[in-house]
Task: structure prediction
Amino acid sequence: MSVEKRKTGFFIGLRPFGKKLVAVKTNARTKARAKEIDVAVRTACRAGDYRGLDPECREVCVRMFQNQGWEIPPDLRDKEPVQDELTLWRATGIFLNYPSVRGCKSKDRYIYSLKHLVRKIGKEKRLKDLWAPDLRLYQAERLAEGASPTTVNWETSTLSRLFGVMIEMRLLDTNPVRIVEQLSRKSSEREAYVARSDVRAIADSCPEWFSSIIWTAFFTGMRRGEILGLKRQGVKLAKRIITLTPEETKEGHWKRVPVHQELVPILEDAMRLTVLGCDDVFFVQDRRGLRPIPEETARNPWPRACKKLGLEKPWPRFHDLRHTWKTNARRSRMDPEIREAILGHSTKERSVSERYGRISDQELVAAIDSMTFDHGETEILVAKRKSPSGNRTPTRGHEKMLTGC
Result:
């Protein structure tokens, strides 16, 4: 057993220090997160260094030692701070285990944001000493690192929710994030269309395992997270329909995605590869063998390919494939209601006909069969924000890729 789902949650199976197999419960919300915890704990046990574990992995590791009656290593022992000193690190552990946060859909995003907050602000920073100037400095430094305003807003919003939990628990009285303005997202507005020839160039420059993920996004418009979490039971190639459950979509609704004829052989090849005990469709295949895809690993091949091709910035992004799909669908004159149903957008209030008029699988397949996927050259339109030095760059930039394809 490596990762196993039971009634009470996800359990990981470890054999630390060459001893007997030990099953440990995690608080992971998804199987993918449980696998990440499994890898992190195994690595820490092998190295005998537990300092780099995030709060959730640390808790699993401590639980394993306690359950087995083993002596807890010094790196895992709680160093009790002075009672009135609530550090960012201590607050992070409390926050991630708070009932309303532990099982929420955004927990993985919170963890990602908190990693940056802890890295920039520091583990030992006392929350009561954190105030508006520190937060504005954080925003400026993250922008200078290349993070988008939307990303920085997500991170400060995560910190705001952390403060909210501390206030609910009567550990703090105020939330300084509320007096700091959110960054304007207009400075990161982006419109993009990626030509099929350029998608092919990027896909050919990526590892084969990631190339199939690129083409799945190109032909379906699915988000990267939806593709990485795709399960075999949801892919019906005979009917050419992919079904996503509410737990697998950002909107929290059922979604059906038709499979274009060109995508069928790509999915067939992907599904020939299997890992015992794992129902995923896509896997990493490298010198370490065949294994589930960690989220961080899936972020690397695309920018590496853009750099390898020598593309001028702004580079296309993986998420631009979703915008490209919508553009191709519109230019192919796909019915707007079917188009939005496939994308799964939930930003507008649905009409009575949209709520009660079910679209059949046959309609979805017919719509994707009538769609074409090559409607012009790559265009990336971005709004340039103020540079870190304070000098304004042009308000609007229009770039085209020069891949020579």
About this structure: The first strand starts at residue 3 and ends at 6.
